[in-house]
Write a structure and sequence with these properties.
It is a single chain. With 417 residues, the protein is of the alpha+beta class. Helices cover 51% and strands 18% of the residues. The strands form four sheets. Strands 1, 3, 4, 8, 9, 10, 12, 14 and 15 form a nine-stranded mixed sheet that branches. Strands 2-13 form a two-stranded antiparallel sheet. The longest helix is centred in the first third of the chain and has 40 residues, at 19-58. The two termini are 28 Å apart.
Length: 417
């Protein structure tokens, strides 16, 4: 058995001659535990919001998106794209065309992004699950998901665009779409000739991603309409993919990148929303940093506890030296004492933090607002990631060990001299 560790363990749990030392040791453990618990809960809440936002984008973003590295469009018959479509791991491959346009309805105007997709867009994403008709969520009601019928083209509008244009869930008449002509010069005598005009009909529903980036920007329609509007026959803006269940996602993504070379970029859902998730990662890191500073402050209690313990055990030190213990072993006793306080506090804090996260996940104790309709979710979302717990434990141990190393050696040296 490790002699210094054995003595340190007895010192931690034994009764001291001065009752205040027991209290200070307990306060030290509690301080580390509370800071650790705060780290677990806070990072888990950030993870919860991260996963919640990711679930929103899943409804609209493809699993993988292949886009031209230069320019806005590529030829649909590009051999590279043909190879990607034929990969055995690809379950759904869909072409899309999107560009900026002006939407006009009942004298209301809005700059929008018109995204033309193929009929299998509902197989690529969960678009059907986010359609709303004003009364009930129309998930699994595919009658509302229509892009075209005969020569008519439908426009599924984001809910914020509908508000801006003064529409209802099902707007009567047609919505006019204007896009600049891609070739030729603008005739200032008749500027209207510089625009291509077309119209969209309502399918009877709007989509609601619950993200302003989409709800206030996108109109979803057929790819034939978008190609005609933007003059992009036999061109595409992106090739969007969904892999078969059980596919090795990272391996397939790497293989597609090799096929694309420097001609195309390949993005997964997180890379497609890199700006959003990068901000969330920075916020999470800053929260982790501030709480680590609080942990450092809490660790000062360990220093006070150790200094009083060293003074309290002055007679024991003399006895240990007479029994043959070296100065190094005696110093290590108090080092182990401080480390035990840090480890005990870390373990208690992690257990309490996980317990609070479980309670929040199960019962939603901490609500976001008094009205259930004010927010997307009623209670703070929580998601525990194992690697966060490992990082928190290592951080607490590192801070605890570092905080006791110098003070312990200093006080022990004074006592032994």
């Amino acid at each position: 058995m490790n002699f210094p560790f054995f003595i340190a363990r007895r010192y931690l749990f034994s009764k001291k001659s001065t009752h205040a030392i027991n209290i200070i040791s307990g306060v030290s453990v509690v301080g580390v535990a509370v800071a650790t618990m705060a780290l677990v809960v806070t990072l888990s809440v950030f993870n919860g919001f991260h996963d919640l936002v990711a679930s929103f984008f899943t409804a609209f973003d493809p699993q993988l998106k292949v886009m031209p590295a230069k320019g806005k469009t590529a030829a649909t018959d590009d051999p590279i794209l043909t190879k990607i479509r034929q990969l055995p791991e690809v379950a759904v491959a869909m072409e899309s065309v999107e560009d900026q346009a002006l939407a006009v309805y009942n004298q209301h105007q809005a700059m929008v992004t018109v995204k033309g997709v193929e009929d299998n867009f509902d197989e690529l994403t969960h678009i059907v699950e986010i359609l709303e008709d004003g009364d009930t969520l129309v998930a699994n009601n595919r009658e509302k998901y229509q892009l075209h019928a005969a020569d008519l083209h439908y426009g599924i509008v984001g809910i914020r665009i509908a508000e801006q244009l003064g529409m209802g869930y099902s707007f009567p008449g047609t919505m006019q779409i204007y896009a600049p002509v891609r070739e030729g010069q603008l005739n200032m005598a008749d500027p209207s000739q510089g625009f291509t005009t077309d119209e969209l009909y309502s399918p009877g529903a709007l989509f609601c991603v619950r993200q302003a980036k989409y709800d206030g920007k996108y109109i979803l329609t057929s790819i034939d309409f978008a190609r005609r509007l933007f003059g992009l026959d036999d061109r595409l803006s992106a090739l969007e993919l969904r892999l078969k269940p059980g596919s090795d996602f990272e391996r397939v993504k790497s293989h597609i990148k090799e096929l694309c070379g420097d001609r195309y970029t390949v993005q997964d859902r997180y890379e497609q929303q890199d700006d959003t998730f990068k901000i969330m990662k920075i916020e999470k890191f800053m929260a982790f940093l501030f709480l680590t500073f609080i942990l450092i402050v809490a660790s000062f209690n360990i220093i006070g506890s150790l200094s009083m313990l060293i003074i309290d055990k002055k007679d024991d030190v003399v006895t240990l030296r007479n029994l043959g213990a070296s100065d190094k072993q005696i110093t290590r006793i108090f080092l182990f004492e401080g480390r035990l306080i840090a480890v005990t506090g870390a373990m208690i804090g992690i257990v309490l933090g996980l317990l609070l996260c479980w309670i929040q996940q199960t019962y939603g104790v901490v609500a976001l607002g008094s009205s259930s309709e004010s927010f997307v979710v009623n209670a703070y979302p929580v998601s525990v990631h194992p690697w966060d717990i490992v990082l928190i434990f290592l951080t607490v141990i590192a801070v605890g060990f570092a905080s006791v190393w110098y003070p312990c050696r200093y006080f022990a040296r004074r006592l032994l001299n």
